[in-house]
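JOB MANIFEST
job_type = single_chain_structure
chain_count = 1
residues = 257
[input]
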Amino acid sequence: MLTKRIIPCLDIKDGRTVKGVNFINLRDAGHPVELAVQYAAQGADELVFLDITATNDNRKTLVGLVRDIARHLNIPFTVGGGIGSVADASALLDAGADKVAINSSAVRNPQLINDLAREFGSQFVVVAIDSRQTHADEALAAGHMVHTHGGKQPTGLHTQLWAQEVWRRGAGEILLTSMNTDGVKQGFDIGITAAVSQMVNIPVIASGGAGSMAHFAQVFRQTNAAAALAASIFHFGEIAIPHLKDYLYAEKIPIRL
């Protein structure tokens, strides 16, 4: 059985790590390089870096900061934010990223998924999906819809249908964030995570809502998620990664210690 992965996330704004609730009310969480070094030392399986204002600011990802972080890491490193072309992705790969995450640009130009997969391989391509439950619809995971531009713009795309499309276009992984549960610390969104992870044949990273170690065990037991991502509980010292992994191991969740 494949081991489940624990992934801290660095949401970056103005060169600093930030974290909010439901994608708003951001507060400072520290310097990204210092946090990256800390998480690698603690045994994180991977690290995700998301330049959360790059798309809204109409600019590229902070390549210099990516390079600074990458030189301190010995774990896989995914970078997202403002990536709109193969050239953008190539620059991040050269700076030390192992994978790129695309979101708004994938919705705007789905062919970009195909192009990146063809150029670099599917394992390099992560499609991030920010999903909000907007209305009751039993046929489509209770009305979950895709949002872009840092969660600010609804798209009209049903989350499950979009997840299937990005998989078919060559994405190697999906980073699925529930906007409804993000930062609330009441647990991952089991419904949409289970629905998406059952419908695609690529790894799904569950994101949004972790508040306790039990929440990680729950999402791994009740869905097919391959990994769980969290931010504030790690940034603010509420849960240490080694303690979380020891807990999951004791709960018989396959985990790399």
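[summary]
Residues 5-250 form a domain with the TIM Barrel fold (CATH 3.20.20.70).
The longest strand covers residues 5-13.
exit_status = 0
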